Amino acid sequence: MRRRLLALLCVSACFLTACGVLPGTGPDRRTVTVWLMKDSASQEFLDRFTEDFENEHPDLDLDIRIQEWTGIGGKVEAALEADDGNGPDVIEVGNTQVPQYVDGRGLLDLTLEAAAKWGRDDWLPGLAEPGQQRFHQYGIPWYAANRVVIYRKDLFEQAGITAPPRTRAEWLAATEKLNGDGNQGIYLAGQDWYTLAGFIWDEGGDLATEDGGRWEGSLDTRAALRGMDFYRRLQSLGGGPVAADEEHPPQAGVFAAGKVAQIVAVPGLARAVVQQNPALDGELGFFPVPGKSADRPGAVFTGGSDLVVPRNTDVRQGAVAVVAALTGAEWDTELARTMNYVPNKAKLAKSVAVEEGVAAMAAGAAQGRATPSTPEWAAVEADNPIKDYMTKVLTGADPATEARRAARRITEALTVTF
Questions:
Q1: What is the rounded CA–CA span in Å between residue 153 and residue 308?
Q2: DSSP annotation string for 243-310
Q3: How many whole angstroms separate alpha carbon 226 and alpha carbon 129?
Q4: Fewest CB atoms less than 10 Å from the CB: which of 147, 162, 204, 290?
Q5: pTM of the shown model
Q6: What residue ranges do the domains of the chain occupy?
């Protein structure tokens, strides 16, 4: 009788647990390996996400591995080419890096999921566009960050400026007021080409354009020249070095030293400023880079990250599920609140509107753009004729002549030879 009872119990358990395989255990449980970049998300956020995801997907385990930005390009390319099945299944990449990985045909096409389930039409353009190639979506927007104007509230008050400017004309007028009595109206380095790009986009121009698969530099268009002229006028209202970028010297240190009313930077830089000069705690404010009219902020370069899935993944459904969860409204807004980022959709911006700097960043992100979506753009940045062009114009050279020269150099860098 005892043996029959044990046998009956075993048979019953077999039906209930698929013959000894408990739910979420056994050979059918798969691991999704995720590469995320250092400091993109806090460990506390990752712990909460992992617990929630694995509860929702009892057949999947998450293995999140943190990577360093330095040298990541070669590491990702090697992973995309590997065939040993031990590589990552989801990878965080910089939004402007996606084209080079698409070019190697190592990424999974996620167009169907993006259009049918993930609300592709609502994504921030500066994140979404670099992830596309010929209307196919490979990079899925995760989070964004962009420049705003960080300003000294006390210096604005002393100059009689009661509200941040909302148009370019107002910005120039306010900066001119601030520029005097030993103060710089704005500290703007001469080679801050990301900021210049926003002014060019505002005018309807671009750094380079594509026609029939061929990319050409376009700094010499009338629109681009108007953007450079505005940059020249703004930069002259301060003492920024004309032959250096914003990191030489680091503008946080210049701002912290006092005598500077404004800089153009990501909001997080304010923390470094206050660390170097605690007296400025509570004196720093933020506003979006002004546009040509008050109804919308100016265009800005959107940095940030996309998530991609390698074609050689052996857990496709699991990888897609991770991307869907991380970039979906719940966890994307939670990441933005936790890390002071901009969510991947403009309509989610209200979730970060409590913090002044992030709210200013989110407003600007709606007008965000990215560098030309071609893998050859890395060659342009390596040589960077845009910086040389800016310095020459700011030191008195003819803008049209120098723009033509810079445009030719960009075209040469973007020309693929076989």
A1: 41
A2: TS-TBTTBHHHHHHTS-B-EEEE-TTHHHHHHHH-GGGTTTEEEEPPPBSSTTSPPPEEEEEEEEE-B
A3: 25
A4: 162
A5: 0.85
A6: 14-145+302-369, 147-300+373-414
Pick among 3.40.190.10, 3.40.47.10, 3.40.50.1820, 3.30.450.20: CATH of 14-145+302-369: 3.40.190.10
Q: Which among 8, 26, 39 is positioned nearest to 305, based on CA atoms?
A: 39
20: phi > 0 → left, psi -120 to 50 → alpha, else beta; which?
left
Report DSSP letters for 9-71, one per residue.
HHHHHHHHTTTT--TT-STT-EEEEEEEETTSS-HHHHHHHHHHHHHH-TTEEEEEEEE-STT
How many Cα neighbours within 13 Å face the side chain of 297? Answer: 24
Whether residue 105 contacts residue 307, with contact meaning beta carbons closer than 8 Å, is answered with no
pLDDT in tens, 287-332: 999 999 999 999 999 999 999 999 999 999 999 999 999 999 999 9
> Comparing 14-145+302-369 with 147-300+373-414, is the CATH topology the same?
yes
Distance, CA of 126 to CA of 366 (rounded, Å) = 9
Full DSSP string of 209-253: EEETTEEEE-TTSHHHHHHHHHHHHHHTTS---TTS-TBTTBHHH
Pull the structure tokens for residue 244.
């250096």
**Rounded to an integer, what distance in angstroms lies between the CA atom of residue 114 and that of residue 306?**
13
Calpha distance 377→380 (Å, rounded): 5
For the chain, what is the radius of gyration of the CA atoms? 25
132: enclosing H helix or E strand? strand 132-133
Tokens matching residue 179: 């520029």
- Residue 24: pLDDT over 50: no
353 pLDDT band (50/70/90 cuts)? confident
Q: Could you give the CA distance from residue 73 to residue 93 in angstroms, rounded to a whole number?
A: 9
- How far is residue 418's CA from residue 165's CA, in Å, rounded to a whole number? 50
CATH hierarchy code of domain 147-300+373-414: 3.40.190.10
Mean pLDDT of the chain: 91
HEC-encoded secondary structure of 328-389:
CHHHHHHHHHHHCCECCEHHHHHHHCCCHHHHHHHHHHCCEECCCCCCCHHHHHHHCHHHHH
Question: How many whole angstroms separate alpha carbon 333 and alpha carbon 323?
Answer: 14
